[in-house]
Structure formats: C-alpha cells, structure tokens
Amino acid sequence: MAGPRIHHFVSCLDGASRLLSIRLLLLGPFSSSFDIEMPRWVPGSYLIREPLAHVRDISADGASISRKAENAYRLRPNADSEEILISYDLLCPDLTVRTNHLDNTHLHLVPTFTWFMPSKGWNAGSECTVTLSMPDDWSAATQLHTYPIKTPNHVDWKGSNVVSWAPPTIDELYDGVIEADACPNHSRMMSGVMHHLRIWDAGGQVVEDEAVERILDSMDKLVAEFVALFGPLPYEEYWTILFLTGGARGGLEHLRSQTSMVPRKALWPHQDDAWRDLVSLLSHEYLHVWNVKRLRPKEFVEYDLSKESRTDLLWWFEGGTSWLGDIICLKSGVWSEKDWRKDLERKMKRFLAGDGNRHQSLTTSSHEAWIHLYRPHPYSRESTISYYLEGEMVMMCIDAELRKRSKGESGLETLFAMLWKRHGLDSPVLEELGIRHADIRKGLTSMVGGKRLGIMLDSLTKQKIKPNLEAAMKIFGLSFEATEKGKEKQAWLGLRLSQKNGLNVVGLQHDSCVRNILMPDDELISVDGIRLRNSSELRDALAGKAGTEVEIMISRHNSIQQFKVVAAAQQEAKVKLVGKGNKLWKTMLESAQDS
Ligand SMILES: [Zn+2]
Prior knowledge:
Layout: E1 6-11, E2 19-27, E3 34-37, E4 55-61, E5 63-69, E6 72-77, E7 83-91, E8 101-102, E9 106-109, E10 117-120, E11 129-134, E12 139-142, E13 161-165, H1 170-175, E14 178-181, E15 185-190, E16 193-201, H2 209-230, E17 237-245, E18 250-253, E19 257-263, H3 272-287, H4 314-332, H5 337-353, H6 362-367, H7 380-383, H8 389-405, H9 413-423, H10 437-445, H11 454-462, H12 469-475, E20 479-482, E21 491-492, E22 495-498, E23 503-508, E24 523-527, E25 530-531, H13 535-542, E26 549-556, E27 559-566, E28 568-569, E29 574-578, H14 583-589
Helix pairs in contact: 2-3, 2-4, 3-4, 4-8, 8-12
The structure holds zinc ion.
Zinc ion binds near residues 284, 288, 318 and 321.
C-alpha cells in the first residue's frame, strides 16, 4: 500500500477538561501480535518520565490490547483485521517546555509524551501523519511540514479547523512539538530565511507590540551572527515558541524550533536582568540548531528513547552552548560588554559557592546527569558540579589559552563550526556522524595555537579540577574583585533558604559553619532571641556578629531546639570583572560579521 500506514489524530476542542482526545489508526496487513511504545524521555532532558501516567481509557478496535511494559501495550489483531484504531485520552496538566499542557487558551503538545509508535513485531516503516483538530480561532505553530493529501477520513472526528502534517522519520515525529492557540504569529525574514515567533502568556496578559519588536530585533541580530559563524542556515523556516509565566523558566531545542519559557517581567521596562536572561536563553536554544540537534554525541546519533542513554560530553553540548550562546549575544550586540560582565558575576557567585569539583569531573557529571543534575538534593552542590556552569567555565579557560597562543587568530567558537561541518547530521560520510571526546581534541589541537591544548582539555574535563578563571581573565588583561569591597564583614551561615512557610533551610554550603548542625527542612525561628521571618531579618540579626557565638533557635519536625555556634565571617567573593581588557579581549567583542 502506498503512503503512510500510521496516522496520529489529536483533538484539543475540550481544553477546559485538560484532556486531549487521541486516535491512532494503523493500516494493515498485520501478520501477528505486535507492541506499541511511548518514549520515556525527551532529548535534551535527562530524566526518565512515565508518560502512561497521564493516559486514560485506552482501547482498540480491530485488535485486543493489553499492557506490556511501563511504556508499552501489546496488540493482538483480530483475524482478517485490515486496520486497528486505538483511542485514549491524555491529561495535560504540566506547564513546562518538555511536557504536554492544555487549557482553554492553548495546547503545547510534546510528541514524545503523546504518541505511541509500533516497536516490535510490525514493521510499517517510519512514515506517518499527524492531524490536529483545534478550536476555530486557533492556529498551530510547529516545525512540522504540512501534509498535502487528505488523511484517512473514516476516523470519527469532530471540528472544522483541522490540519495535518507528515513527519518523514520517527526522529522528526518525536521532535515536532506543536503549539496551538489564538495568539498571533510574528514573522520576519532573517538572513534570508523566515523566522516565526509565537508568544503565549500563561495568565492571559497582553504582550505589547514594542516588546515583540524588541525580541524580533534581537533574534535578527543573533541569527546574523550565527550565520557569520556557521554559514547558511540549515533549514527553510524556524519557529520560536515563547511562554510567559509568573516565574517559571526553561528552554528546549528542536531541529527547526525551540520552546522557551521566561517570567513575563523580562518584557517589562527596566528589567535588565530578566531581559538579559531571555536573550541568553533564546541564543542558547537557537545554537542547539547546530550543537545538539545536528552535531550530536555518537551515542545520540540515533536516540533510544525507551531507556537512559548516556554521554560523557554534556559539558560540550550544554556548557559549550551556554558559553558560545552568550558570546554570540556579546558579538552580535544584543548584549553590551556590561551585560556580559554582569552575567559573569552571577555565574561566578554560583561557581565559587560550590565544591563539587573536588568530587566530580565534567565527564562524570555528564555521564551521571540522570541521577544527579536532574535529581538534585540539598547536598548536591558540595559533591557534584553542573556540566552547564562548570562546563562553561572550562570553555572560557580553554578559549582564553587558545587566543593567547594563537595571538588572537583562533577562538573556540570556530571549533563549534568545524565540528558541525565535519560531524553534523548533514555530513556526507556516515561514519563521521556524531562526535566523541577524541574528535573535540583532534579539532582543538589542529587549530592555530591549539597544538598543545589537548592535555589542558583532557585534564579540565576528565579530572576533578576547579578551572582557574582568574588566570583565564588575566590573559585578557582583566581581573576579579569583590563586589562589596571594604564593607564590614558580615556574619555568615552559608544556608540556602526558602520563605514559603517560615524561613526554612533548603540547602547548606559545604563550608557552612552550621553544615553539621542544621538540616534541610529545619525552620529558623530566631537568632539571639530575635524572631526571624525572612532572609533580610536573618541578615539584620547577624550584623556585626562575625567571629562571635550566636544562639540559633529552630523547629525540627515541630520540636523546638537551640544551638550555639561561632558565626563565620562572610568571605569576599571575587566575582566582579574589572579592567578594560587588552587586544585579545577586543577579539572577543568583535562581530564575525565584520571579518
Ligand atoms: Zn541547552
């Protein structure tokens, strides 16, 4: 039979119920029993999820259906069945960039946690169609290509606003996120290619036109800078789906689209930190077009979405993307140099507060993402590192050394382009697809000035070493100093606190003076008899008490307890970058569009 034999249908007409109505039509012939399976993780987010937890009332016409595994059902076709129709409802309550979310204002459909695909026993190829029925005033924003011919129409289907797509491969099916809502499309040609922006506000707030223009202008500059680095864009159309929230944040990359989510205040006037973060996020997810979606670790050239898949290279794919994404912000002019320095200050505070480098290397941090970064606990930062943050810091160190040794001729950004051209999904040589550590090393040592940097790369990524940012910035004629220089030393407990129901301990720094006294979930009640309700009251209560004994009252499991401890002095964290920078530093600021 010509054409796809697997057709996915979804209706979001009843958004208020939070339930999607789903049909899956399989066209025979069928020779025997076979399984259908839903993925358990989504590329870019290393956590096993249980998508069937949200599946309700699954049934099949033309076959019997029974549960086979955590994420799979077994179908036994009836004798002479020519087609099988599977029906189920799917609850979509979670608003994140990697989960299904449905209400009466929008649908964010994440295919990995929506669609079953045949896994064992029936080979119908990977061609399929996806059809969405949505309210009349909605339209869809998706990277999927529309399906020009009618899908089988004998499925009992409602609605007059129906659109179909035809993902050519399973990879494309599962990568094809769909946002459907009544929000307008903002489209603009950027570097000769159409880019669409769809903004949905989770609370229904109106997005001002100036804010939209500001985002489009920034994206335009970013795209031009990426083109200058990587060459012509590897797609014909790109979609940015942006969610605005009261506080939640996240981003997830796809082949020709991204879903990003930021607090809506990022679009308000004078919210410099939030705006800077939004632009950085857009740039980061956009860079994944090359570094993750097309250039992948060898292990991810073909994803196995049924179980954990590990790579040692997330420091390159996430840390590297964070580093270069922000460098592109700087070079393209969407960030000023002041923005870059300000953001480095924020990163340095986190970097200096952790002690994980003594316990974990970047390759281990990458390999163990599934059990560490995605499952943090109150003591995580004292024994683990983040391949995002520490990965980015390592990139900065290697880049500085490369610029020094090449006298400004080479920068690490060129290595990203080189690896993508050589090992990206569009590479003509099959064996070259995907990279290992050795490929990064080979690329680096082949660069002008990079000949002897292989050992530095190996030790900073494979050994338990804290990268030396001071030395790296010194190469650029820059140095760090304390932000609050000369201030009287404040007493310091080294706690991370939450203020939801009282002032509660959520984490303790490794060098905290109460590391072995307080516990996560303890509620701080008072210091030296002064009642505490929030962090600023704690700061006031500790003022001038560095080096003296203080009495802390807490509630632990509703039992009042008291401790005496000598309060430590707040250390002056050197996080503020100072100095004008030398000639090498100027090469960092230059746009590649000028050369
Ligand atoms: Zn990322």
